[in-house]
Design goal:
Layout (H helix, E strand, L loop, with lengths): L1 H17 L4 E17 L8 E2 L3 E10 L4 E11 L7 E13 L6 E11 L30 H5 E12 L3 E11 L4 H8 L6 E16 L4 E15 L9 E15 L3 E16 L6 E16 L4 E11 L8 H6 L10 E14 L2 E12 L15 E15 L1
Antiparallel strand pairs: 1-2, 1-3, 1-17, 3-4, 4-5, 5-6, 6-7, 7-8, 8-9, 9-10, 10-11, 11-12, 12-13, 13-14, 14-15, 15-16, 16-17
Length: 391
């Protein structure tokens, strides 16, 4: 990853000197305080911490009339939610094809591209574009942030602006390197080997009327993973396939915005724990979120988010029984209510806060962690207050 960051910095510097009229760059700095109580989702021991830092720099350079290059470097510190440090969020060549048959336009990204298939996936890396610091975890769970944000490969987007409708069709294929932090989220801290994402294949379609009041969409994902154990490991070689199906909707009015996404995930795995081990599990959930603009500078948010780890065991009782009581039943599901606000205190300055009440803990930690029962109580809370500046 370090060589990619160095490459991106070199590109930014080179293009800035090459032709400033074709180069533009922007950035953001965000700092806050946060806490998770009765849960280790963000902080340990119910501590209040300043581990809510986001610093990003992104650039755009026009190589030719319809060809450009874009990239972003990001420093992220979110407590226990993801690995602290610097990462290359994206770096890709963008080729626009404005005139296709039937009033269609095309856009092709090659490199490390951003995920365009979910409502908030393309904006989750920039704090001032998110309505809350912690997005609904049923869809945007933070333990897998870097893998879900984008992939190394190719992505195409086709858009048609008709008289009465706007259509967008997206397709992508690629893979992402999985680090040890993300491995631990999937398999627990006891795993010592390497996880490889063999591929992730995604497609989505969105429709809007010409009034832009509605946006409806559907997306599909399929991804294969393989695990290679270390020489001393309590995990065996194994493989898994994850398929995700989602429906999304947004409604826009003068002062209102309502959004929702529903998700179904099917996971099939083999090996890992025993040579003949096989498992098939279906997770389900989704969220509904309402934002109201009181003024041009102040808005409020309320949302409800729910997810069950296994639709055949929605209350987690089978999970607790199979684990011999080491995993409490409430780790089989998670329901969260969120209240938040956004206040633009000056141009390019924003103060944003939120409070979450959670019942259940399936998105807090890997269910294979040795100390999973100590990671959260059945009912727990989290909050944050974040100051942002962008340029």
């Amino acid at each position: 990853m370090k060589w990619k960051i160095v490459l991106a910095l070199c590109l930014v510097g080179f293009y800035a000197k090459a032709d400033s009229s074709k180069f533009s760059w922007h950035g953001y700095v965000s700092q806050g305080i946060t806490q998770s109580s009765d849960s280790n989702f963000i902080t340990d021991n119910n501590d209040i911490t300043a581990e809510l830092t986001e610093i990003g720099l992104n650039g755009y350079y026009q190589l030719a009339e319809n060809v450009s290059i874009a990239g972003q470097i990001n420093y992220l510190d979110g407590g226990n939610r993801f690995e602290q440090g610097t990462r290359l969020d994206y770096l890709f060549v963008d080729w626009k094809i404005p005139d296709l048959i039937g009033r269609w336009q095309a856009q092709i990204h090659v490199g490390r591209f951003k995920n365009r298939h979910w409502l908030y996936s393309v904006a989750r890396d920039v704090p001032q574009t998110r309505y809350s610091s912690v997005l609904p975890q049923s869809v945007y769970f933070d333990g897998f942030r870097d893998v879900a944000l984008g992939s190394n490969g190719i992505q195409t987007s086709l858009t048609r602006y008709g008289n009465n409708n706007i259509w967008e069709v997206n397709w992508s294929y690629g893979r992402t390197t999985i680090n040890d932090s993300q491995r631990d989220f999937l398999l627990g801290n006891a795993a010592k080997g390497k996880i490889k994402q063999d591929f992730v294949h995604q497609a989505s379609v969105f429709w809007q009327p010409s009034t832009m009041a509605w946006k409806l969409g559907a997306s599909w994902l399929s991804s294969d993973f393989t695990y290679t154990p270390a020489s001393e490991d309590n995990r065996l070689a194994g493989a898994a396939n994850i398929r995700r199906f989602m429906l999304s909707a947004q409604y826009f009015a003068e002062n209102w915005e309502v959004s929702s996404e529903l998700i179904r995930e099917i996971q099939e795995s083999e090996g890992l724990f025993a040579p003949d081990f096989t498992e098939k599990r279906r997770g389900e959930g989704g969220f509904v979120q309402v934002r109201y603009l009181f003024t041009n500078t102040f808005s409020a948010l309320i949302s409800y988010d729910t997810y069950v780890n296994n639709a055949s065991d929605p209350d987690g009782l089978q999970l607790e029984a199979i684990s011999g009581g080491t995993i409490p039943a409430y780790f089989g599901y998670q329901d969260t209510i969120t209240l938040g606000f956004r206040y633009d205190i000056a141009p390019k300055w924003r103060l944003q806060g939120e409070y979450h009440w959670a019942d259940g803990a399936t998105r807090v930690v890997s269910l294979l962690d040795r100390d999973v029962a100590e990671s959260a109580q059945k009912k727990w809370e989290m909050w944050s207050l974040q100051l942002m500046y962008w340029f």
